[in-house]
Amino acid sequence: VIYKNVNVGEYIPDLIIDNKIIVELKTIDRITDHEREQVINYLKITGCHVGIILNFKHEKLEWERIVL
Q1: 53 and 66 in contact (C-beta within 8 Å)?
Q2: Is the pLDDT of residue 11 over 90?
Q3: How confident is the model at residue 56 (pLDDT cuts 50, 70, 90)?
Q4: Is 18 left (phi over 0), alpha (psi -120 to 50) or beta?
Q5: Mean pLDDT in the chain?
Q6: Which of the 8 DSSP states describes residue 61?
Q7: Is pLDDT at 35 greater than 80 in this prediction?
Q8: Element housing 16 (H / E)
Q9: Region at 4 (left for phi over 0; alpha for psi -120 to 50; beta for the rest)
Q10: Which of 55, 57, 52, 45 is nearest to 2 (CA)?
Q11: How far does CA 55 lie from the centroid of its chain?
């Protein structure tokens, strides 16, 4: 990740589909603003416009789609 021409770290996404969709895989109690903000930052960094958070913690899959 480059910020103001300085390398500030490395980002390794869980999945990138067709260089368009960021997928974050989680096993947490529930999806919160923290996860949403994280995906929004990833979208800004990569230039992708769609992110999906998948939470596998419970019997029923919890998921959210985020679009910039």
Answers
A1: yes
A2: no
A3: very high
A4: left
A5: 93
A6: P
A7: yes
A8: strand 15-17
A9: left
A10: 45
A11: 12
Tokens of 52: 């999906």
Q: Do 48 and 21 touch, CB atoms closer than 8 A?
A: yes
Q: In this model, does residue 64 exceed pLDDT 90?
A: yes
Q: Distance (Å, rounded) from C-alpha 34 to C-alpha 45?
A: 17
Give me the amino acid identity at 55.
N
C-alpha 27/C-alpha 55 separation (Å) is 5
Hey, what are 23's tokens? 């997928």
Percent of the chain with pLDDT over 90: 74
Beta strand segments in the chain, E: 2-3, 6-7, 15-17, 21-26, 50-55, 62-67
